[in-house]
Design goal:
Layout: H1 12-15, H2 19-31, E1 53-56, H3 60-70, E2 88-90, E3 96-98, E4 103-104, E5 107-111, E6 114-117, E7 121-122, E8 125-131, E9 148-155, E10 158-159, H4 160-166, E11 180-182, E12 187-188, E13 194-196, E14 214-216, E15 219-224, E16 227-233, H5 241-249, E17 260-262, H6 277-280, E18 290-297, E19 300-310
Parallel strand pairs: 1-17, 3-11, 4-19
Antiparallel strand pairs: 1-2, 5-6, 7-10, 8-9, 8-17, 9-11, 9-12, 13-14, 15-16, 15-18, 18-19
């Protein structure tokens, strides 16, 4: 292990070393009995410096429900490309914040000639994968795990009025870029329970067709002001983290240590499994609301991501 790898206040240098180093550190930690500190009273910090940030749209239930809401007259609620590739957009790395950071209600253009505070503020329950070594070219889907260190919980705060007005034809912009919250530690993929991925129809193209497709079996929940409003599971995702990475790099785009690729909202079709308020069809976030997301994969606690909504800044 290079000297000073763990001296920096972020994991980026360690992420850059790749799987052999990750595995060696994991084996050593299993043999040690390091001192433990109680979480209470500890100040969370970003576990890594976010180099770049991509947010995908990988839940079939979420994409179907939102498609019906935004395009009620469409014959198919899914975008034409949705079943052929993991749709996504580039987010803003500079506004990714750690759990516990307050989130201020954004202002923006809600309709022609109408600028003001967002009135339909929402959360989005997501799982994000954190990348390690960079790539020289497209990453084969079956080699993706060599570049994926672990996961964080993600709350992709969303301004629905801004989104509805601005998203055609280029997708989300200011509706998403004001804040994204992540949990304060990265859980290695090797500590997660992985299961077979869902059947995909039509079959994915060769560069997205994994020999052994996998999904993360992670029970997830959202609390709003202390009340659980959502329970769902990341295994519901149609597109896997490996497919997301293979797609992101398929055109030659470069990744590097600290890149974050989020899943998009994780939802199911059953009542109570919706990963955002938009899908519930009633009510949005009020000033002072506290949103807490938690997760567990097998015996591994994924921690939590917490945020409190602050009022919009005065004009």
């Amino acid at each position: 292990m290079p000297a000073g790898t763990f001296d920096a206040p972020s994991l980026n240098a360690f992420l850059a070393l790749g799987r052999p180093a990750w595995d060696a550190v994991a084996r050593r930690l299993e043999r040690l009995d390091p001192p433990r500190l109680p979480l209470a009273g500890q100040r969370p910090v970003l576990p890594f410096t976010v180099r770049d940030y991509v947010d995908c749209y990988s839940s079939l239930a979420h994409a179907t429900t939102v498609g019906r809401l935004f395009r009620p007259d469409a014959a198919d609620p899914l975008p034409a490309a949705w079943r052929h590739l993991p749709i996504g957009y580039h987010g803003r790395a500079g506004t990714v914040v750690v759990s516990g950071t307050d989130v201020r209600r954004p202002c923006g253009i809600r309709a022609p000639g109408d600028f003001g505070p967002e009135r339909m503020l929402d959360f989005e329950l997501e799982l994000g994968v954190v990348c390690g070594p960079g790539n020289a070219g497209p990453v084969p889907v079956d080699r993706a795990r060599d570049h994926l260190f672990g996961v964080v919980l993600v709350n992709d705060w969303s301004a629905r009025e801004l989104q509805r007005f601005e998203y055609q034809p280029l997708g989300p912009f200011l509706a998403k870029s004001f804040a994204t919250s992540i949990s304060p530690w990265v859980v290695p993929l090797d500590r997660l329970t992985l299961v077979a991925g869902p059947a995909q129809d039509p079959p994915p193209l060769p560069h997205l067709a994994a020999a052994e497709p996998f999904a993360v079996d992670a029970e997830l929940a959202v609390e709003l002001n202390g009340e659980v409003v959502t329970r769902t599971n990341a295994r519901e995702l149609y597109w896997s983290a490996a497919q997301q990475l293979a797609h992101v790099t398929s055109n030659g785009a470069k990744i590097g240590p600290g890149d974050l690729i989020a899943s998009g909202t994780i939802s199911g079709f059953e009542p109570g499994t919706q990963g955002c308020l938009l899908e519930r069809g009633r009510g949005f976030l009020e000033d002072g609301d506290v949103v807490v997301m938690r997760g567990r994969s097998g015996s591994t606690d994924l921690g939590e991501v917490r945020g409190t909504v602050l009022p919009a800044r005065a004009a």
